[in-house]
Amino acid sequence: MRARQSGVAIVLAMGVVALAAMAATAIMVSQSTWSRERELAADHVQAQTLISTGVDWVRAVLCDDRRASTVDYLGEPWALRLPPMPVENGELAGYIEDQQGLFNVNNLVTEGKLNLTQFARFQRLLAVLGLPEGLAAPLVDWIDSDGDPQPQGGAEDAYYLALDPPYLAANQPLVDVAELSQVAGYNDQVRATLKPFVTALPQITPVNVNTAPPEVLAAVIDNLDLDAARTLVSARDRAYFRDSADFVSRLPRGASVAPGDISVSSNYFLATLRVTVGAAQARGQALLSRPDLKWPTILWRKYL
Fold first, then answer.
1. Which residues partner with 289 through β-bridges?
2. Residue 107 in contact with residue 216, Cβ under 8 Å?
3. Residue 60: which domain range?
């Protein structure tokens, strides 16, 4: 009987030891996980801090560029992708994109009202990209200040209030082209197609013909088809346009544009940066405004 009790006691003791070992292991794993999470959190904070440092580097590059020249073209240092630069326990990489080489969707509305010239140009851009021209109307309604829908395919408050969940038209300029996701008809496929060719800037802007892709040139230059626009871009790669008159002189016969609608310089740039620190990674973007001979200002920034 005593032997049996002794055996039971030994088994119980072994069970207690096993449970204690399991508990100790769980605590060690928990502490290790917590320690790793803290390490990752610290790395991520450091990565986000380096994003801000990268934005300041971009601002310095753009400021130096403006002091050197008032002409902006794709052969300048700012337009080259930044090779990965080593930072403590990681690397920083990024690139700068001229936003005035794109179609500014806020040009569609001037002082709260439809700009017919820009409306026609945006319709041309949609057609060049193989998208329905009817997408121009709801975008105008999203930006303009009135509540009256455009006659063909417009969408104002009544349309958006019928959605689930309901919301109202912005009736103001876009801050970021990401807002197109809220506009009637601008589904994922439409936005993906438009993304390389449109921007949203806080004022009416001319198109920089030194950085615009052929699709944008074909949209903003009257009587310029896509093939002719591609020929212009090919020639531009060999010799950039020195001024607007130089650009106009190289247009094919019949093509024309108002001098105020084009430029060879830019004031708005988008910086995209990626930082890796340890196992953490952060990506961010910043829209920068570069006044003449002044330190560029940050209009907005976001983490991706």
1. 268, 297
2. no
3. 2-100+267-303
Whether residue 134 is found in the same domain as residue 257: yes
The mean pLDDT of 289-303, rounded to a whole number, is 89
Any idea what the CATH number is for the domain that residue 174 is in? Answer: 1.10.40.60
- Based on its alpha-carbon atoms, the radius of gyration of the chain, rounded to whole angstroms, reads 28
- Number of domains making up the chain: 2
Full-model pTM: 0.84
Q: The tokens of 83 are what?
A: 């090779």
pLDDT band at 23 (very low <50, low <70, confident <90, very high): very low
Longest CA–CA span in the chain (Å) reads 114
Residues 140 and 215 reside in one and the same domain: yes
Per-residue pLDDT, 207:
98
Per-residue pLDDT at 21: 41
Residues 138, 143, 148, 151, CA torsion sign: negative
Burial of 248 (0-12, 13-18, 19+ CB in 10 A): middle
Same domain assignment for residues 127 and 219: yes
